[in-house]
Each structure stands twice: as C-alpha cells, then as structure tokens.
Design brief:
alpha/beta; eight-stranded mixed beta sheet; three-stranded antiparallel beta sheet; 10 helices; transferase; SAM-dependent_MTases_sf; tRNA (cytidine-3-)-methyltransferase activity
Length: 293
C-alpha cells in the first residue's frame, strides 16, 4: 500500500491507489477525442457479427502464449481453495470463456479433491482445441476436466454436459466485457439456469476508465464504453451501476432479483514503470453473486 508518495518508484505495483487529482480532466479529454471519430455506423454491424471468428484468429496467432496463468484466482476468491480440499465432495465448477485454460489448469494443478469436475467453455473453437491439447487435459493429476465450444449468449441450450441446476460455481473472468450489451440478458439467464440454488458466480472484469479504455485511439469506439480492439475483438468497461439493458425482466428467468450480492467493488492498482518513470492506473470490477434459493 502506498502510504508515502515519495516511495512510489520503489515498487512495481501498489494496491488500492485512489485516482490522481487530474483524472477527471484526463478522462474528459480521452473520451472527447474518441467520440470525435467513432467506428462508422456501417462498420459496427460487421464488428458485432461472428465475434467467435475474431477470437479464433486471436488464438490461432497467440495459442497459449498471450495470457499469463491466473494463479491469483485463489487469492481473490478463497472459495476456489475450499472446493479443492480433499474432502470437499462432489463439486462442479464451470469456467466460461476459458480461453487457453489460463484459469482452468492452475485450478486443476492445485486441486486435491478427486470429486472436483472442471468444465471449461469458450465460443472460440480454436481456444478449446488449445485446452484439449494440453497434457494436463488428458491426464489430470486429481479430479477431471472437460472442455467444449459454447456461446454464453446462446438461446439454444446450455453447454454440453451441463443440466439445469447442476453447477456449484461459475467463473466469469473478463468474459461479459467481450459481449455486446444486448447479449448480457441472455448470458445472465444461462448462468442463472445452470447454477444450483445457492450456486456462486465469481466475477472479474474491466472497470470504467481503466488505462486501457483511455488509451484507445480514434476509430475504436463502438458505443458508450464499448470498443473494438486492433485484433477486432470487443471490450466493454463496467461501473457499479445497473446497465439499462438489465433493468427489464430477463427472458426465461424468474423475476428479479436473480442473485444476492455478496461482494461488489472496484479494484484499483497503480502499476509503475520505474525505468521510464511512468504511472499506469488500472481499474477492475470484482464481485461474488449467489443464486437466490
């Protein structure tokens, strides 16, 4: 924790650092620049069609070399340690948006529960192939893992091997941000349907005015706080508020509230480039949501 500003260059990162005093001016300037040159209307439809294609291209290029293993999940969500204990019993854990397995495999390698089943899903078929080609997939040390292609925003069905009300924990890390806000309702309905009563959602995603958002150049803004990256994948930046798309009742779901909020907050971190004397303010959202009985 940064208690003395004069020590800022002594570490590479600081937790829970408030935004700088001039942040409002910096945010206003960045957003004004982006709004002057948004994605042309004619191109928005193209970017919002077949998003899995762009993620396929991403994983064809990067395989499992882009994202680091998410070993921090156990620190942020101690519930994952509890279900991995030897006597935890039969637990089904679903990671949605598994990518190359950067969360699933660290969880599996730390697992001591022979009755833990990890189900990993992604709408990129190439990402799923990367997972299935990992040696730990075919020979997990303890427990089991299954991976398949599935679109979280699908209206067709739940993922392969998952019945309604059969999942204990859903991991949703940097996933909803890749969907169009119009798809969130379907995504939430699917998550609610697959969880057992009392089941848990572990959520982490990009926060509003994160450094990444403010750095977007012209021609990247799809909609408010929603962008297209250079590789044509999409990203939304969240805040602690209810988006208008989720205010109305969701199809195929019982009336609100669907979940009880056990945790919801903003995780701020200051990353420091000591050599170049740069300060980089990162913002993430984190939450835990319990399915109502």
């Amino acid at each position: 924790f940064l208690k003395d500003e004069t020590e800022v260059w002594s570490q590479n990162a600081w937790d829970h650092v408030p935004p700088p005093e001039d942040q409002a001016e910096s945010i206003a300037a960045s957003l004004a620049r982006q709004r002057q040159a948004p994605v042309p209307e004619a191109e928005k439809i193209k970017y919002n069609q077949k998003p899995a294609k762009h993620w396929d291209n991403f994983y064809k290029t990067n395989a499992d070399n882009f994202f680091r293993n998410r070993k921090w999940l156990h620190l942020e969500f101690p519930e994952l340690l509890a279900v991995a204990e030897p006597e935890a019993g039969a637990i089904t854990l679903c990671e949605i948006g598994c990518g190359a397995g950067n969360a699933a495999f660290p969880l599996l390698s730390a697992n001591k529960n022979p009755n833990l089943t990890i189900r990993a899903y992604d709408f990129s078929s190439h990402a799923v192939k990367v997972v299935q080609n990992n040696p730990m997939y075919t020979s997990p040390p303890v427990g089991s893992i299954q991976a398949a292609v599935w679109d979280l925003s699908s209206l067709e069905s739940l993922p392969p091997g998952v019945e309604a009300g059969s999942v204990d924990i859903v991991i949703l890390v940097f996933v909803l941000s890749a969907l169009h806000p119009d798809e969130w309702g379907k995504a939430v309905a699917n998550i609610h349907k697959m969880l057992k009563p009392g089941g848990l959602v572990l959520f982490r995603d990009y926060g509003r005015y994160d450094l990444t958002q403010l750095r977007f150049k012209s021609g990247r803004l799809l909609d408010d706080n929603f962008y297209i990256r250079g590789d044509k994948t999409r990203v939304y930046f969240f805040e602690i508020d209810v988006h208008p798309n989720l205010l109305h009742p969701l199809a195929h779901c019982p009336p609100h509230p669907l979940f009880a909020i056990e945790q919801l907050g903003i995780d701020r971190r200051l990353l420091v480039n000591r050599k170049r004397q740069l300060k980089m303010y990162r913002v993430w959202m984190q939450g835990k949501f319990r399915k109502q009985e």
